[in-house]
Amino acid sequence: MHSKSNPVVWFEIYVQDMERAKSFYEAVLAIKLCEMPAPTAEMTMEMWSFPMDRETGMNTYGAGGMLVKMEGKSSGVGGTMVYFGCEDCAVEAARAVSHGGILIKEKTSIGEHGFIALVQDTEGNMIGFHSMVCKPSE
């Protein structure tokens, strides 16, 4: 059975320093993260969620997700790749660098699928930015 919707419904970005990571993502994506309680009292973790439409939840475009600080889960390049949608990926990539990130791949065409830019966040995680149209970067 094939679903017509995107099967990606959630992501977690593991971090070592929550304040540093939270500041980085809020500044780069121009958003406000929302603190989330741990799922159970036994789970000792700190979680901050990316904005999500609470009315329709996961039925809207884009996957929900959060930053997670939890014992036994380390951050770093090589495990998971998260792409954030944006108007011009070069803008977010530049913001990432100005907020402590490292540019890995500048805005690059991926043909009919648009453009991507890759950065390493302040926690060592590789993340991507994706945009569809070519806009001049400022």
Could you write a compact summary of the structure shown?
The chain is an alpha/beta fold. It has helices at residues 18-29, 89-98; strands at 10-14, 34-36, 45-49, 64-70, 82-85, 102-109, 115-120, 126-131. It has a single domain (10-131), classed as 2,3-Dihydroxybiphenyl 1,2-Dioxygenase, domain 1 (Roll), CATH 3.10.180.
Walk me through this protein's architecture.
Pfam families: Ble-like_N. The radius of gyration is 16 Å and the shape is globular. It is 16% helix and 32% strand. The chain has a four-stranded mixed beta sheet with strand order 1-4-3-2, covered by helices on one side. Helix 1 (18-29) runs antiparallel to helix 2 (89-98). Strand 2 and strand 3 form a beta hairpin. The protein has helices at residues 18-29, 89-98, and strands at 10-14, 34-36, 45-49, 64-70, 82-85, 102-109, 115-120, 126-131. The model has no long low-confidence stretch (mean pLDDT 84).
How are the SSEs placed, and which strands pair?
Layout: E1 10-14, H1 18-29, E2 34-36, E3 45-49, E4 64-70, E5 82-85, H2 89-98, E6 102-109, E7 115-120, E8 126-131
Parallel strand pairs: 1-4, 5-8
Antiparallel strand pairs: 2-3, 3-4, 6-7, 7-8
Helix pairs in contact: 1-2
User: Remind me, CATH topology?
Assistant: 2,3-Dihydroxybiphenyl 1,2-Dioxygenase, domain 1
Distance between the termini: 45 Å
Helix percent reads: 10-25%
- How much strand content do the residues show? 25-35%
What count of helical segments does DSSP give?
2
CATH homologous superfamily annotation: 2,3-Dihydroxybiphenyl 1,2-Dioxygenase, domain 1
Integer tally of domains = 1
Radius of gyration: 16 Å
Record field, number of beta strands:
8
Mind describing the biggest β-sheet?
4 strands, mixed
Shape: globular
Which architecture would the CATH scheme give at its second level? Answer: Roll
Order of helices and strands: EHEEEEHEEE
Structural class: alpha/beta
Give start-end ranges of low-pLDDT stretches: none
